[in-house]
C-alpha cells in the first residue's frame, strides 16, 4: 500500500494500513471514530489514549504510536501544506547547543508533533518530496524577465546618450587593459561562447523532468541581476574603457517643445533594437556607457552555474567545459577592451553569489521556513516562486518518447478544457435565450 497519498485515504484505507502494520485490534475502534487519512496524520498520543480507554495494554498503544510517528515523518510535506506544523517554531532555536538539536517536543511534554524541530530538509537525502510544475509561475517569471529586459534596453539608450566625452574623460587606469593589447575579434568570440552555453542549457531544459522549475528560477535570477545592473548604470557613468570605441551621444534638438515626443519615440525605437538583438554585437547592437558591471559576464556566469547545478555530478567533462567557456568568455570581454576589469569582477561576484544564496535557501527548507517573514520581505520573488518546493530538485531526465507523450497528454488536456468551456458557454447561452423567450411570451 503506497503512502504517497495518505491525505486522500478513506476509512477503509486506514483499516488496511492498520492490518499491514500489525495493529488489527484497532481497526474497529478507528472505524467507530471515523478516522480517515487526514485525521490519521494529525493524531497525537493523547488522542490514542482517549480512544483506547477500554484497552489496558499500554504496549499496544505505544507500538501503534510508533507506527503513526513513522507515517507522519514520511509525510512531513503534507503536514506542512496542511499548516499543522512549522519548522523551527521556537524563536530561540539557536539557544540550544550545536549538537543538541531536539528531535521531539520537550517544551511542554505533550509529545505532539507541533513541537518538534527539524534541522534538515523534508526527506532524509534532502531531495524534495513535492515538486508541482506550476507552469503559470514559469510564465510569470518570464513576464518579469521580459519587463526587466525592456527596462535594461531603455536604460542602455539613456546611458549611451550621456557617455562622458573621451577628450575630457580618458579611459581609467586598469591593470588588465593597460597590459593586454586590444584584440578586435575577441568580443565576437565572447558572444560565440555564450551562444554555445545557451545551446547546452536549452538541451538540459528540454530533457529535464522539472524543466518548469528550472525555467522560473532562471528567469527570476536573470531578471533580478539585470534589474540591479540598470540601477548601477544609471547611478554612475564611467568613461569609455578603450580609445577604439567610437562613442558619441546622439545630438539633441534645441527646439525642446517640438522634439520631446520625437526624442522619446527615437529612444523607444533604439531600445527595441537593443532588446531584439539581446544586446549582442553579432546582432548589430553597439552601445556605450553600460558599464559598472558587465551584462555579458552575467549571462555567461548564469548559464554556467545553471548547467553545472542541474546536470549529474559525474559529468565532469561537461562541467569543466562550461567553466572553461565561462572563463574564456570573460577573458575575451577584457581582451576586446569592452569593459573594465572591475566590471567583470563585480558581475561575476554578484551573479554567482545571488545564484548560491538562492539555491542554498531553496535546497534547505529549514533555513527558508525558520524566518519566513524576513524571507517574504527581503526575497519576495523567492518566497513566491519557491513556496511549493520543500527540498533539492533532483536531476532526473525524461526520454524523447516520454516528452512527446507528455506533450500529447498536455495538448489533450488543454483541448478537453477548451471544448468543455465552449460547451458550457453554448449551454449557458441556450438557457439564457430560452429564459428571454419565456419572459417575452409572458409579457405578451
Automatic annotation (TrEMBL):
Recorded superkingdom: Eukaryota
Places the protein is found: Membrane
CDD domains hit by this protein: SAM_SGMS1-like
Main location: membrane
Membrane topology: Multi-pass membrane protein
Membrane spanning stretches: 142-163, 183-206, 218-240, 291-308, 315-334, 340-358
Keyword list, A-Z: Lipid metabolism, Membrane, Sphingolipid metabolism, Transferase, Transmembrane, Transmembrane helix
Gene3D superfamilies xrefs: Transcription Factor, Ets-1 (1.10.150.50)
GO MF term set: ceramide cholinephosphotransferase activity; sphingomyelin synthase activity
Keyword Membrane (UniProt): yes
SAM domain residues: 9-74
Cellular component, GO annotation: endoplasmic reticulum membrane; Golgi membrane; plasma membrane
Record-level GO BP terms: ceramide biosynthetic process
Family: Belongs to the sphingomyelin synthase family.
Protein name: Sphingomyelin synthase-related 1 isoform X1
The organism's taxonomic lineage, starting at the top: Eukaryota, Metazoa, Ecdysozoa, Arthropoda, Hexapoda
The encoding gene: LOC108632653
Amino acid at each position: 500500500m503506497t503512502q504517497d497519498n495518505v491525505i486522500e485515504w478513506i476509512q477503509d484505507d486506514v483499516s488496511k494500513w492498520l492490518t499491514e502494520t500489525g495493529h488489527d485490534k484497532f481497526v474497529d475502534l478507528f472505524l467507530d471514530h471515523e478516522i480517515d487519512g487526514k485525521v490519521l496524520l494529525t493524531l497525537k498520543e493523547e488522542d490514542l489514549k482517549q480512544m483506547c480507554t477500554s484497552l489496558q495494554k499500554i504496549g499496544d498503544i505505544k507500538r501503534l504510536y510508533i507506527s503513526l510517528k513513522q507515517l507522519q515523518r514520511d509525510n512531513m510535506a503534507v503536514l506542512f501544506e496542511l499548516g499543522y506544523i512549522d519548522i523551527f517554531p521556537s524563536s530561540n532555536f539557536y539557544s540550544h547547543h550545536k549538537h543538541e538539536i531536539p528531535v521531539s517536543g520537550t517544551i511542554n511534554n505533550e509529545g505532539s508533533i507541533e513541537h518538534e524541530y527539524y534541522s534538515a530538509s523534508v526527506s532524509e537525502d534532502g531531495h524534495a518530496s513535492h515538486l508541482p510544475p506550476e507552469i503559470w509561475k514559469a510564465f510569470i517569471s518570464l513576464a518579469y524577465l521580459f519587463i526587466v529586459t525592456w527596462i535594461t534596453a531603455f536604460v542602455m539608450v539613456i546611458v549611451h546618450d550621456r557617455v562622458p566625452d573621451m577628450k575630457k574623460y580618458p579611459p581609467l587606469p586598469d591593470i588588465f587593459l593597460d597590459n593586454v593589447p586590444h584584440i578586435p575579434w575577441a568580443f565576437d568570440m565572447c558572444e560565440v561562447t555564450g551562444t554555445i552555453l545557451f545551446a547546452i542549457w536549452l538541451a538540459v531544459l528540454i530533457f529535464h523532468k522539472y524543466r518548469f522549475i528550472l525555467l522560473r528560477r532562471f528567469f527570476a535570477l536573470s531578471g533580478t541581476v539585470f534589474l540591479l545592473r540598470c540601477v548601477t548604470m544609471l547611478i554612475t557613468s564611467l568613461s569609455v574603457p578603450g580609445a577604439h570605441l567610437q562613442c558619441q551621444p546622439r545630438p539633441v534638438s534645441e527646439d525642446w517643445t517640438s522634439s520631446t515626443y520625437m526624442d522619446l519615440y527615437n529612444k523607444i525605437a533604439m531600445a527595441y533594437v537593443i532588446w531584439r538583438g539581446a544586446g549582442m554585437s553579432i546582432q548589430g547592437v553597439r552601445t556605450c556607457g553600460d558599464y559598472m558591471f558587465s551584462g555579458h559576464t552575467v549571462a555567461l556566469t548564469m548559464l554556467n552555474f545553471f548547467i553545472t547545478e542541474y546536470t549529474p555530478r559525474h559529468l565532469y567533462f561537461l562541467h569543466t567545459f562550461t567553466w572553461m567557456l565561462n572563463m574564456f568568455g570573460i577573458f575575451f570581454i577584457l581582451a576586446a577592451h569592452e569593459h573594465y576589469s572591475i566590471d567583470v569582477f563585480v558581475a561575476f561576484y554578484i551573479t554567482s553569489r545571488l545564484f548560491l544564496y538562492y539555491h542554498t535557501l531553496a535546497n534547505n527548507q529549514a533555513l527558508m521556513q525558520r524566518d519566513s517573514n524576513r524571507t517574504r520581505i527581503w526575497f519576495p520573488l523567492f518566497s513566491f516562486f519557491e513556496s511549493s518546493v520543500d527540498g533539492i530538485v533532483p536531476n532526473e531526465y525524461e526520454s524523447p518518447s516520454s516528452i512527446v507523450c507528455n506533450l500529447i497528454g498536455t495538448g489533450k488536456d488543454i483541448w478537453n478544457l477548451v471544448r468543455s468551456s465552449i460547451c458550457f458557454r453554448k449551454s449557458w447561452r441556450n438557457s439564457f435565450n430560452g429564459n428571454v423567450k419565456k419572459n417575452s411570451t409572458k409579457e405578451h
